[in-house]
Amino acid sequence: MPGNDKFFSVNIREYLALGNDEEAGEPALVELLSGFSSPKNKDVERFLKKSAIEFTKKNQSVTYLVVSAEDVRLLGYFTLALKPLTVRGETVSNTMKRKLLRISELENRYLYYVCISDCTAWKKLRGRQG
User: Fold this and answer.
1) pLDDT at 108
2) Apex CA 15: angle with CA 14 and CA 21, to 5°?
3) What is residue 21's predicted lDDT score, i.e. its pLDDT?
4) Based on the domain organization, do 72 and 23 belong to the same domain?
5) Is 29 contained in some domain?
6) CB 75 within 8 A of CB 7
7) Angle between helices 26-34 and 42-50 (to 10 degrees)
8) Quick one: 117 and 55 in the same domain?
9) Which has the closest alpha carbon to 73: 19, 5, 7, 1?
């Protein structure tokens, strides 16, 4: 992550690209993930340990590990879903349609907007709609 020397992020695809290399490939990733704990939210822990790798392999999502630069310790993670967001055109105002065109494509045959940007932009648009 630019501008921060205390931690950095690593896309787990970098591990997976190295195959079965015990030192740096998928087995090393599994070992790293096995040490992660989230006592306040076991679902967060369970997803990382049981689903993150498979979801990445299936291109359903991609997970980034947040690692301490000092001792290379796994601090946390975030996952981005790789699924398009679809909105029916007749359900939104003309103003919202114009805003959606900034971050999406209009599928004319079905009058749907398909989000081609990140969902953060969608949330910002929804928040401004009022």
Assistant:
1) 60
2) 135
3) 81
4) yes
5) yes
6) yes
7) 160
8) no
9) 7
Q: Which domain holds residue 118?
A: 86-129
pLDDT in tens, 43-86: 999 999 999 999 999 888 899 999 999 988 899 999 988 766 67
64 and 17 fall within a common domain: yes
The reply to whether the predicted model has a pTM over 0.70 is no
Among candidate residues 56, 51, 14, the one with its CA nearest the CA of residue 36: 51
Q: How far is CA 82 from CA 4, 65, 98, 103, in A?
A: 27, 17, 24, 15
Residue 124, SS3?
helix
Position of tokens 């997976």? 16
Nearest to 93 by CA among 126, 53, 61: 126
Q: What is the rounded CA–CA span in Å between residue 16 and residue 13? A: 5
Domain identity same for 11 and 65: yes
Domain-embedded: residue 1: no
Distance of CA 114 to the CA centre of its chain: 18
Which stretches of the chain are DSSP H helices? Answer: 12-16, 26-34, 42-50, 52-57, 94-103, 119-129
Pairing mode, strands 74-81 and 112-115: unpaired
